[in-house]
Model the fold of this input.
Amino acid sequence: QTVVTQEPSLTVSPGGTVTLTCASSTGAVTSGYHPNWFQQKPGQAPRALIYSTSNKHSWTPARFSGSLLGGKAALTLSGVQPEDEAEYYCLLYYGGAWVFGGGTKLTVL
Amino acid sequence: QITLKESGPTLVKPTQTLTLTCTFSGFSLSTSGVGVGWIRQPPGKALEWLALIYWDDDKRYSPSLKTRLSITKDTSKNQVVLTMTNMDPVDTATYYCAHTRVASGSPPVAFDIWGQGTMVTVSS
Done:
């Protein structure tokens, strides 16, 4: 059973920078895992932010960026806005199957 | 503009089979590289990927649920159907369908557009 692990919760001040990470129980996350990142606010469907490590969708705000960091996938928010308070999920590809992480609840305080 | 909408029963009894339909517009499942997936989310819990079907009828399932799931497409109706057998109260969740695209020479784009979700409760 493959497990994808994220920080359960993080807190950031408005205007600050925060990095969320996504680790795989199988070892280091590489570009071959095609990391995706999603944002979900209460009562809403998830919204895609990043695909295949660092590619942004046309609607993704510039302050969101994806990368690989220390064997993990990472999502960095620079210049955090109050509206960025949400749950964030990563998604990794395992040769035909996809696995979501447990989510990170980001609080902007 | 791509849209997807899930439909199906809101309540099923334990041991019954759940059938959900995803009706979409703005794309065709006969177009090379296109896929539709299903994801669920129990109340207050994380997302869980369930299944994915591609334009060429390639089907992928979550290993942990593979024996209970079946995904099919009806290209003429712009629909994808997910069936899940032997439902249990732990399967109570919001079920989402989402658009996916893969292209030769380009990175895959997983679940870029989502439906609003449909809540399914499993209870006797």
In short: The interface with chain A takes residues 37, 39, 46-49, 52, 60-64, 96, 107-117 of chain B (CB under 8 Å). Chain B has a mean pLDDT of 96. Residues 88 and 104 of chain B are 39 Å apart (CA to CA).
